[in-house]
């Protein structure tokens, strides 16, 4: 009798355990893909919600990381990549040969809508959105401390901004890197570094993410947050007392590209997802969230213009040399880390 | 049946007696020992060994290269210095403050002690970085204080980390001191008084020495928690980096595992040494901090009671202010500009929405179930089986106390994120996160269970055996019915810790298994202050409701003495 | 059911809790283990019950080796010192526990529980919980629980020690009656010599893990094997043989010169005048009147041991009217009652 009880309870135990495990595993659905992205959390959430309407049968596991972090992570995982798609990730990082070698050539439906200069000649990636640098300046603090409204990078060197400027860390943040790259490209390397060292004296903190400088400036923790335009627009929308300033020298900018992984275990679903990113619904969504959209179609929302974005944004953008940015990224970051990282 | 054997053949006889024990029951016991030991090997020792191995693995075979690259940088020593500076100062302040607080609640006649005690424990219900969150809202450059007084004080950096860490670890130290001060031997105090010693002398000669083990235990617990905490430094640290944030940034952000392993080993060493020393010096006290000791008779003393009343009130105010401001901010329209009431941050229109909270609850429930089973079984086996394995098994059960959550989490990635490992089947699932939490908190859960097991006389088991009850029947009919209040307490403990912990979990998070505490960190990290606050409030609400339900359940069945907050 | 224990030893680390113990327990008898605290009584009982495995030696039950049978299959009944009633079960459930474990039929169980509770006079307490009963009642439940599955042997570990004197006496008689009725082989551990003397068919005196003496209570009382047993069981005056007290050698043939002699207090007689038998002069030091009995302690003025004059205890029926402290009396110790305790 005792053996019977024993075996009964053992059976129960294992059954229960198997059930848990089984449940855990069965969560992996057939058309499930893992997507890595550097889109801002709120924009990614909005895009995904739209996607889910069009492709309800695909489950997307989204990992959002800062541009630089995602870069390091993909390199580290290169032996056993865990994702199927890279979505909305800086072109500068995408053209790293080590990354390129992991990508599969694919011509999604509607690719012809993307101008050729925003695509890889071998069809490994294409960029449909982009973003540009901007300052978030807290009006309340300016008023309280009687500071002038900064209009350019040069203005940030003024001694009264000491301890009032925050900026992203270029090693982890794509925004941070594009800001530095644009300064170096505008001023030339020597003057550029000189400027950055001067600026460092006024910097309160280098912050890991590209959006947080704007958020902390919005919260009134610091007067100026060097960030990107859309964050400023969204925060103005939210009601924060800030002004978006596009640096007079020109706004550094970056394109966000999408690509298919060679190692994807679910290419059918991954391709359907990529096709969707060029669909009309997707493009409409981009226009609501991005200052730069390479695909024609929508219109810039009123709120963007009200926040101070010129309708022809090309006029304020620095003509970035992305291949230079990509080729010199490691060197510049290393230099920055040894000279300026805290 | 047997041939009689004289005492002369004693050796043979002993062997024979052994074989006699091998029946179904014996096999079941061996099985139970295995059931306790194997998961501990798999989910604690194996990942640790993996980290150790990985830290020596380089592109060209085994070597010290990782150590050389990491330890050879100036930055590493800066981080090391920062970590120790913050940790040592925090530990000192916390131990001092918490001792005083525990003294006030156990050894004085401060009115409303129970309320104060509860307030001191509230931080345990919240994710571990809520202190930093609150501190920024209060004392940030644009926090309530600076705004109100027009000052320009900045909390970012060293002092911000120290203050938020003190608030974070305060309840842990308080619990230890409180238990130790509750278990007082009244006779010592009376004889000290009869011998004419004043209160200060009595404190120095009787109270302090009798709680020295608690001081040691609290010091080590606090030290471990602070040196491996990255939530608070990330939020209020500004540019002040510590080892823990570096590990977080390098491993989570950039998948720089080599650096992670090396710093992980560096963190493991002082902690393991600390725990080992504590265990050697203090074999029995750690677990025997019983809540059942009756408090001693305390005479009123106006000066002392007045002083401590002010003291505990001040500390409680700090705790409440920091937590309260988080709750408040979560309900404002736009902190700190529009403070009118709004629920819009509870819409959770962020990636994954409210899902992380459900994930947390689900994980917490799994952790509670697995944790109760694992630690209950472990306590039963070590307390009741009287086998050769008792001591090694006991040791194995409390080893996790020496492993920082961060190191354990790292170990899990290293060991299990590998398709050839069978555990890979559950890698990236909430189940593995639950398991990780269970084994991270295994030592505490185990000690709670085994202390209570000790208090249930083993003659019940013997009586059952004599009456023909099998092992299973004994457990089902006697042990479980007597143990359930404690086991419920253990389950609540695992649930609560699982809801708020960050340190191990953060490394196991995948896109589909984000838990609420991690959401708070991520939201806070990208500056979504109000939403992060709202998430924190939800976590607290869930924990408090579960505690309340468990409390009501226990009280209904007459188990008021079982304490739920550990 | 007769039990045989052969050359059994048990170690706890370096401590030898049982030292080569051999013992025979006859079927249907009541055996008492008696001895000072820590002498190994409980250990021996637990070895018999199967809760402990001996390190050496064997046990036979009716000629069958017991060692290969685990405790739960030995079908013994046991009553623990602390009762160990399951606090989460009613009295009836406690009593039924052993029956359920042994897979009795449901209807049989109900009947048996009723029957056995009736036997211990607790039929109306069946639905109460242990903590609602008095100590004596709990003890009776423990007994009922042990007896319910009709065990082949009953083991009692100091079953009465936690009760007050009155209840203890009552229960002691009840146990004896029950044991007589059921004719169940019973082993009882006790501290209390009176309990052991009145209850047992066979008395086993233990010390330091060894059996010092065994026999019928009368035999052990009258002929203690040594001064330890003499002092432990009843009161006995232990005197050095060198005092010259006369003794008879009957029953003892070995040895030449005895070392210690003993005499029970009830065999010490006091007279007011010296005569041929009352040769020792003593002074009354203490008088204890115990109702029907008076106990007197005298100092023998002329007999010394190393430490000074020897004291002797005498007991006499009645009130011993007129006897006062400081009186002189002459002591007589009739040789037939003088026991030889130890030989040189
Ligand atoms: N589990 C054990 N581990 C170690 N030593 C033990 C154990 N059980 C008993 N002992 C020791 O063995 C000796 C005999 O113990 P035992 O309990 O048999 O004594 P006892 O005669 O029943 O005493 P008492 O009358 O006080 O109950 C004692 O010295 C005791 O300390
Ligand atoms: Mg005993």
Largest interface: A-B, 60 and 53 residues
The DSSP helix count of chain C reads 8
The chain-level structural class of chain C is: alpha+beta
Mean pLDDT of chain B: 83
Oligomer state equals heterotrimer
- SSE run of chain B: HHEEHHHHHHHHHHHHHEEHHHHHHHHH
Estimate nothing, just give the exact number of structural domains of chain B: 2
Radius of gyration of chain B: 25 Å
Major sheet attributes of chain C:
6 strands, mixed
Instruction: State the secondary-structure class of chain B.
Output: mainly alpha
Distance between the termini of chain C: 41 Å
Q: Per CATH, which architecture of the largest domain in chain B?
A: Orthogonal Bundle
What does this structure look like?
The complex is a heterotrimer of chains A (342), B (566) and C (344). Chain A is α/β, with parallel strands linked by helices and 342 residues long. Chain A has two domains: 25-130 and 255-301, Periplasmic binding protein-like II (D-Maltodextrin-Binding Protein, domain 2, 3-Layer(aba) Sandwich); 131-253 and 316-339, Periplasmic binding protein-like II (D-Maltodextrin-Binding Protein, domain 2, 3-Layer(aba) Sandwich), CATH 3.40.190.10. Chain A is built from 15 helices and eleven strands. In chain A, helix 2 (41-54) packs antiparallel against helix 12 (280-289) and helix 7 (174-187) packs across helix 8. Residues 24-29 of chain A have low confidence and may be disordered. By secondary structure, chain B is mainly alpha-helical. Chain B has 24 helices and four strands. Chain B has helices spanning 10-21, 24-56, 65-71, 74-107, 113-121, 130-139, 144-149, 158-182, 186-194, 199-210, 212-227, 231-236, 243-253, 257-281, 302-330, 355-384, 390-398, 405-416, 430-440, 442-455, 459-466, 471-500, 516-525, 529-556; strands spanning 57-58, 61-62, 332-334, 338-341. In chain B, strands 1-2 form a two-stranded antiparallel ribbon. Chain B has a two-stranded antiparallel sheet with strand order 3-4. The longest helix of chain B is centred in the N-terminal third of the chain and has 34 residues, at 74-107. The radius of gyration of chain B is 25 Å and the shape is globular. Chain B starts with 9 loop residues before the first helix and ends in a 10-residue tail after the last helix. Chain C has 344 residues and is α+β, with helices and mostly antiparallel strands. In chain C, 24% of the residues lie in helices and 34% in strands. Chain C contains eight helices and 18 strands. Chain C has helices at 41-49, 91-101, 106-119, 135-147, 165-182, 193-199, 217-222, 227-232; strands spanning 3-12, 15-25, 30-34, 56-61, 64-65, 76-79, 153-157, 185-190, 202-207, 210-215, 237-240, 258-263, 269-271, 280-289, 293-305, 308-317, 328-332, 339-343. In chain C, strands 6-7-8-3-9-10 form a six-stranded mixed β-sheet, sandwiched between helices. In chain C, strands 13-17-14-15-16 form a five-stranded antiparallel β-sheet, with no helix packed on it. A four-stranded antiparallel β-sheet of chain C has the order 2-1-4-5, covered by helices on one side. In chain C, helix 2 crosses helix 3 (106-119), helix 2 (91-101) runs parallel beside helix 4 and helix 3 (106-119) packs across helix 4. Chain C is elongated and about 75 Å long. The two termini of chain C are 41 Å apart. At the B-C interface, helix 1, helix 21 and helix 22 of B face strand 1, strand 4, strand 5, strand 6 and helix 2 of C. Adenosine-5'-triphosphate (ATP) is lined by residues 12, 15, 17, 35, 37-43, 191 of chain C.
